[in-house]
Amino acid sequence: MRDTLKHKGMRNNLAETLIGKGITDEKVLNAIREVPRHLFLDSGFEVHAYQDKAFPIGAEQTISQPYTVAFQTELLNIEPGHKILEIGTGSGYQTAVLLGLKAKVYTIERQQELFKKTKLFFNKMGYRPKKIIFGDGYKGLPDEAPFDGIIVTAGAPIVPKPLMAQLKIGGKLVIPVGLDEQIMTLYIRKSEKEFEKKELGNFRFVPLLEDKN
Ligand code: SAH
Predict the structure, then answer these.
(1) Which biological process, per GO, is one annotated for this protein (predicted)?
(2) Which residues pair with 176 in a beta bridge?
């Protein structure tokens, strides 16, 4: 598969759809206009890639819906050079959007099959996250902490304490919390001990699973 002007046109339309749904951050919208989502999917989904929908990516996982990717990314308020930790690499689409905002990205995936596939894909495409880790996102990445932002792209039954602890003061954690349905939750670290919490609507994600290793 290649990226063509036709795909670019479909991405512009997708960005318009997202604007219609309330996404306003131009930098986020530009990243959506740039990242060739169809290349992150199996070829059978190519014609559907620019619909605002989630799709299967193997290993019972899904690529998040573009609206969800844009919504979560917008909440992080990324500035160039920000250090961002992503839990749930999956297809790598969200990672690529974060890279499009010039973040330094660390990303963790617990499914070996997806980890390997997406790592190869990043190499092929020239996407350069700082680290792609095969491991358990519940633990975060203490060696690289603190982070300006942490984004969890699977539904978390609880808010993992290590993730809160690995935020900079002023840093943001964006995490969908819940079992069957999740509430998008934003934590902003105000000081060593204080966090501001905001709940921002309902979403549906595949579950954030405990480590099986
Ligand atoms: N950001 C991805 C979304 C993939 S779906 C994308 O844009 O495609 C969520 C991903 O979280 C899945 O790949 C799943 O395997 C992974 N995941 C689930 N539990 C995890 C955990 N404890 N640690 C790391 N990744 C996890």
Answers:
(1) methylation
(2) 184
Catalytic one of 43, 64, 91, 191: 64
Report the pocket of ligand 1 as residue ranges, CB < 6 Å: 61-64, 87-88, 90-91, 93-94, 108-111, 114, 136-138, 153-154, 206, 208-209
Read off the pLDDT of residues 24-38 as tens digits, 9 standing for 90 and up.
999 999 999 999 999
Task: Return the CATH fold of 5-203.
Answer: Rossmann fold (3.40.50)
For residue 91, indicate whether it is catalytic: no
* CA 86 to each of CA 6, 132, 141: distance values in angstroms, whole numbers, following the listed order: 30, 10, 10
Dihedral (CA of 26, 120, 151, 64) sign: positive
- Residue 213, pLDDT score: 47
